[in-house]
């Protein structure tokens, strides 16, 4: 069940998604709250499970993984435990989504070389058909929502500052 978030909560979430290491005093200034009120709000969002963690963003190329691929996997079997085991063993598989449609899984994979990517694709092919797509660029990195869901929330500027929802994430 969704948590009821007000405009200030959404403003805090937008700022934390931009910079999870922002000092609480600066966060409070940006959302027009005192430091103590900001701290209370952030702790509440964490306690409710809305904020689930804070993460570093890694430049994959500089970390030795210049190739990024999306691999689609058709998984004909009904026992998914062997695949889950492989996912736990392969840190270059960054994300795995179970989906509807012809492909059962969508995986984001970072690779050091084409040979490395082929090795990962071959390991996945044990479970079913794979289709590999190389990523040229990432015009929109993964982000969280900037405002409430639903058509009414986006009518006449759904962003916390009166702008269109999501505009805060555009460069």
Automatic annotation (TrEMBL):
The answer to whether keyword tRNA processing applies is no
Q: Name one GO molecular function term.
A: sequence-specific DNA binding
The answer to whether UniProt assigns keyword DNA-binding to this entry is: yes
**Alphabetized SUPFAM superfamilies for the sequence:** Dimeric alpha+beta barrel, Winged helix' DNA-binding domain
**Domain HTH asnC-type: start-end pairs:** 5-66
Instruction: Say which domain of life the source belongs to.
Output: Bacteria
Output the Pfam families linked to this UniProt entry.
AsnC_trans_reg, HTH_AsnC-type
| Name used for this protein in its record | Lrp/AsnC family transcriptional regulator
């Amino acid at each position: 069940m969704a948590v009821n978030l007000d405009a200030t909560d959404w403003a805090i979430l937008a700022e934390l998604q931009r910079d999870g290491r922002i000092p609480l005093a600066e966060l409070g200034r940006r959302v027009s709250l005192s430091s103590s009120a900001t701290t209370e709000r952030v702790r509440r969002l964490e306690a409710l499970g809305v904020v689930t963690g804070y993460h570093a963003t890694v430049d994959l190329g500089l970390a030795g993984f210049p190739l990024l691929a999306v691999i689609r996997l058709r998984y004909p079997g009904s026992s998914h435990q062997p695949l889950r085991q492989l996912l736990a063993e392969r840190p270059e598989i960054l994300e795995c989504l179970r989906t509807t449609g012809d492909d059962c899984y969508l995986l984001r994979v970072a690779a050091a070389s084409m040979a490395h990517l082929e090795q990962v694709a071959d390991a996945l092919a044990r479970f079913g058909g794979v289709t590999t797509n190389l990523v040229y660029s990432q015009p929109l990195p993964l982000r969280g929502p900037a405002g409430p869901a639903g058509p009414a929330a986006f009518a006449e500027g759904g962003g916390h500052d009166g702008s269109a929802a999501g505009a805060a994430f555009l460069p």
